[in-house]
Please model this.
Amino acid sequence: MPKKVDVVERKNKIATATWQVILNKGIDKASIQNIAEEANMSVGLIQHNFPSKEKIIHYAMSLIIDRMEERAKARSHAFSGTKEEMLRRLMKFLIPINYEEIMEARVWISFLGRSFSDPELFKLQQKMDGYSRKMVQMIINLMKELGYLDKEEDSQLEFEILYSFIDGMVIHALQRPDFYTESKVDQLNDYYLKNIKRRKRNG
Amino acid sequence: MPKKVDVVERKNKIATATWQVILNKGIDKASIQNIAEEANMSVGLIQHNFPSKEKIIHYAMSLIIDRMEERAKARSHAFSGTKEEMLRRLMKFLIPINYEEIMEARVWISFLGRSFSDPELFKLQQKMDGYSRKMVQMIINLMKELGYLDKEEDSQLEFEILYSFIDGMVIHALQRPDFYTESKVDQLNDYYLKNIKRRKRNG
DNA sequence: ATTTTTATAATACAATCATATTGTAAAAAA
DNA sequence: TTTTTTACAATATGATTGTATTATAAAAAT
Model:
């Protein structure tokens, strides 16, 4: 056989080309031929790596989610700095900040739209949701540890509000990246925490 | 000529058929032929009402936004009840609650995904954003009026947090409609307001 | 009553689509 | 060395696509 090729790397290259086509031309133009052209590959090579276009789409979304989870994991495993800094870092776990992250988040939105008519994509989205909830729970736990919330307090509503706030920022950040810079996000998170502290002093 | 037909009604019927195809098969399957079948019309009739497929998509998104704005307007113009009730009603201005609203919000997400590669859709999305911001500002003003916020206070950060919270709930409501019932949304909004009040007592 | 305008349908067509088929070169396995 | 396996390309194919063309019936305008 020819030079044994890294099949994962190959698939990822096809997936990222798919993202590019979706970003530049829209998801309805994400055809095998267009993906092949974007990836500088032949149609046959794409077919050699994926049995159908459906599988390309599914793989492309699952890779987006993997990337998001990786970033979140990297942030939650970075134990440098104080716990207060850790809390602030965690609160940004989903927010797309640099160009690459914004593009990925935009592609994710396209997949989210399709997930309502594609059960496989819906499952992937649910997986993403499950992971996000774990991260938000970590944030809530850290808030309790740092005295932002009472430890005995039932924090279910606090959880949902924080999660909505974070996902809302994601939606806004990918629509107005010039406004939603990292420092703007920091400012909002600080204000959010300050408000929790202010009301806590009151009980 | 034949029975003069209501051209707006006709266009809206095509637009809603487009929504259905997007919901059932995905935005990449929203072809003229599929839309025609869904609307029980001939391809020629679709073409008679729209010069191109592009225009159908644009019209379909603009109708979604009109519907959302209409609902928001209806809620903000309903002056029944106390101002506290009005505040709570306004906080739900974007949240999809019944089946129809959830479907519309899901279609909106599909258009949002495409808006990054279609300048016309992006403009429509910006229009929607502008309207939403007006509504959120109304809510902030009412919060000041009702003593939730200090009137002199610069409420820019408060504004962004509330707007993200609301848009985040939208994203969550259309993904988990069984969880995000209207009463759950009410509960979250009440808790949100209660927290503002608690911290305000402290200053 | 004749002409014109309009709503609607049927169908045609080239482009693009997803996928199948076939071929080839290279290297691992025998 | 021979065989087999694999990476990759070229091209074919039938379905679907957006759009153009043509036809028709009905009613408004003349």
Q: What stands out?
A: Residues 1-4, 31-34, 43, 47, 52-53 of chain A lie near DNA strand C (CB under 10 Å from a C1'). The first helix of chain A runs from residue 7 to 25.
